[in-house]
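Weekly modeling sync, notes
Attendees: AB, CL, MP (scribe)

Item 1: holo prediction request
CL wants a bound-state model with pyridoxal-5'-phosphate before deciding which constructs to order. AB pointed out that an apo prediction alone won't tell us much about the pocket. Agreed to run with the ligand included and paste results into these notes for async review.

Input as submitted:
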Amino acid sequence: MGDVREQAEGSEKTKPNVADNLRAVRERITQACEQCGRNTDDVTLIAVSKSQPLTRIAAALEAGQRVFGENYVQEAGSRWPDLRRRYPDAEVHMIGGLQTNKAKDAVALFDVIQSVDRPRLAAAIAKEIASSGKPVNIFVQVNTGEEEQKAGVWPEAADDFITLCRNDHGLNVVGLMAIPPADEDIALHTALLAKIAARNGLSGLSVGMSADYETAVTFGATHVRVGSAIFGPRPPKS
Ligand SMILES: *Cc1c(COP(=O)(O)O)cnc(C)c1O
């Protein structure tokens, strides 16, 4: 991992070079695609900017990055309306757990919501999309590791939930998202996600983070969510 790893683990004083890191991550995605005969254009790099200082996000935007991932509605709301005025083509994905009572803010803020995993949340998002007229694409989050403490619909319930999102709520479901257990083979989880996606006619597969995005790409990820490898370590949450 070379420089990226060093920076990710370096002291707080080591300022990450966001532009260099972005270039390195893109290069690795390209290599992973070449290895398995995929087209690089079929993989979207989502720069995960949660808890990162604004200067690092600005550096990524200046370096040409346009797709970002955020985890907290309030934090995203404190910066993206402003950033979007300067970068109208920026695309922001909600990848963190979403409370139903924040659906309205989330629909207003985000282009894509990847963490849809329960009927009440799907209903709330659909209602806000209908009343605001703002189009939002949806990923259904699947708990591929069947971990009790984790969000996501369980694999055996995924088909019914996807159907509910589409048919009952008219949501534009474009893919599936997973956060596999860190200590398990991401290949198996990506394969399971791909299987559920295929039988539901979905093309989007959001899986892979700083530690494993290349492997995820090799196994078919269309969206990788990379934070610390681009922005450096996240400052501790205060
Ligand atoms: C924080 C986060 C990431 C990025 O994690 P890194 O290890 O910093 O790349 C990706 N996906 C989700 C859902 C996250 O919460």
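Recorded for review: The longest strand covers residues 172-177.
Action items: CL to compare against the apo run; MP to circulate these notes.
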